Amino acid sequence: MLILLALPLRPACVSRFGAEVVLAGRPVDPRDLFRGDYVALSFEAESVPLELFPAPDEKKSEYAALDLSTWFVALAPDEKGLWTPSGVFAEVPEGPYLKGTVKYLAERADGSMTAEMDYGEGLKRFYVKEDTGRELEESARQSRLRATVKVWRGMAVIQSLEVVPDAAQPHVLH
Q1: Which helix (H) or strand (E) segment is 146 a member of?
Q2: N-terminal to C-terminal alpha carbon distance within the chain
């Protein structure tokens, strides 16, 4: 019984105590029969360049990313104000970070390798008003969707989504 009562505590703690970061998103638009429309999300911060992981040593020829243990991905803002991975550590780093595991390795168009990360349920879906999910999906395809996320102790909870228009003011969904 205590476990059921504790489940909502984790996102509440993240929302209350977490550091706010903004991530670029790539969503899909499903629907939950009981809760309504939501946007299933994927973030550019889930693709972590392999060179950000600890370098291999003489004993190992592969990067440490192949290890499926827990990694701490430090976040830092880029020139556009979007938070991106700045380093990957086996121990908790300073500043905002996401805690996750490597799902698989992928090759980018430029030939560089990335580790595709799983940061848990807090970044996977965001519930929206009915019939607004498709607009968000299209905005993400045009690289115009931003998510304001609270990050605390490696856990993340989406606070709002923002569609960044070409020339007008941003449209925020809470």
Answers
A1: strand 145-152
A2: 31
Comparing CA positions, the residue from 168, 164, 165 lying closest to residue 22 is 164
Look up the pTM and report it.
0.75
Q: What angle do CA 65, 67, 68 make, to 5 degrees?
A: 105
Nearest to 153 by CA among 14, 27, 5: 14
Residues 6+ apart with CB under 8 A from 43: 23, 24, 25, 26, 123, 147
Q: Note the pLDDT tens digit of each residue in 102-127.
A: 998 899 889 988 999 999 888 888 88
Looking at 76-80, 82-86, 99-103, 134-138, which range is the least confident one?
134-138
Spatial distance between the Cα atoms of 5 and 3, rounded to a whole number of angstroms? 5
Residue 15: its H or E element: helix 9-17
